[in-house]
Design a protein that fits this description.
Rossmann fold; 2 domains; seven-stranded parallel sheet; 13 helices; 12 strands
């Protein structure tokens, strides 16, 4: 049967399904990202590859992959795969859509609340032993969330789920910008479509849910931050390069915006050193938007389902 290579640790029961079908499975059982050299070496013998968004499956990798039939990406996005090269080589590329919407929306709002109410700073304050009782002017006064204006950049599934939390849970006014208007969001949530510039100027909280494209790379640059309220908070759980991190650091250091909740980074796993130094109204987490047991299991299951289908000569369930 076929050789399957997995670039990261995956739930054992999912890999057993591949073995039960007669396939040979090799999983890289180590933390961190696979090296380029190892990826190139392993892909040369594999007929199926299960990989991460952080694994760059470019033309060189595809050229080395003489036997490869499918790349099963453990993500909704697939900008890490050279689709043109894969198509030319007859390699199927699949993703894992539809299972991480609510989980990622939960984290978005967790970052929004944590940055606004300075939860991480306050936690460190208590743990340091500095808390001596309630005061009217406590050191960690935060920003109001209820009833404020929530700006969504990218009103897809996740953006709509975040808007729903803001509108129905916190009584927020929702404005949004996207390449297309979302009539369902406008009907259900009274969301208002506005220009990108208007969204920046009017929003108290700006949540980024747009895919990474040539047009959205560095969408949030210094000029964008100059348009935002000085009391505004940016939350990015989409893709790191949508935000120019140098410009973000500048905006936070100068008080051009009030804070940020960041889950994704421009050069993952590297984080701009300037961001690491900032604490007030700034929360940084390590790309955990979909990181719940239920969601990550579902992503693994979908990837394996696609591999099983393609290796059996059937159509993939989630081609991109």
């Amino acid at each position: 049967m076929a050789k399957v290579y997995v670039t990261c640790r995956v739930f054992p029961e999912e890999l057993e399904r591949l073995r039960a079908a007669g396939h040979t499975v090799e999983m890289r059982d180590a933390p961190g990202l696979i090296t380029r050299e190892k990826l190139l070496g392993k892909v040369s013998e594999a007929e199926a590859l299960i990989c991460l968004l952080s694994d760059h499956i470019d033309a060189e990798v595809i050229e080395k992959a003489g036997k490869l039939r499918i790349v099963a990406n453990l993500a909704v996005g697939y900008e890490n795969v050279d689709l043109a090269a894969a198509q030319a080589a007859g390699i199927v590329v699949t993703n894992t859509p539809g299972v991480l919407t609510e989980t990622t929306a939960d984290l978005t709002f967790a970052l929004l609340l944590a940055a606004a109410r300075r939860v991480v700073e306050a936690d460190a304050f208590v743990r340091s032993g500095a808390f001596y009782g309630w005061e009217l002017l406590q050191p960690h006064l935060g920003l109001e969330v209820h009833g404020k204006t929530l700006g969504i950049v990218g009103m897809g599934r996740i953006g709509t789920a975040v808007a729903r939390r803001g509108r129905l849970g916190f009584g927020m006014d929702v404005i949004y910008h996207d390449s297309h208007q979302s009539k369902p969001a406008e009907t259900e949530l009274q969301a208002k479509y506005v220009s990108f510039e208007t969204l920046l100027e009017k929003s108290d909280f700006v949540c980024v849910h747009t895919p990474l494209t040539r047009e959205t790379r560095h969408l949030f640059d210094r000029q964008a931050f100059l348009r935002m309220k000085k009391t505004a908070i940016l939350v990015n759980v989409a893709r790191g390069p949508v935000v120019d991190e140098k410009a973000l650091v500048w905006a936070l250091e100068t008080g051009q915006i009030a804070g940020a909740g960041i889950d994704v980074y421009e050069e993952e796993p590297k984080v701009n050193p300037g961001l690491l130094k900032l604490q007030e109204h700034v929360v940084l987490v390590p790309h955990i938007g979909s990181a719940t047991f239920v969601t990550r299991r579902a992503m693994a299951r979908i990837a394996v389902d696609n591999v099983l289908a393609v290796l059996a000569g059937e159509a993939p369930l989630n081609p991109v």
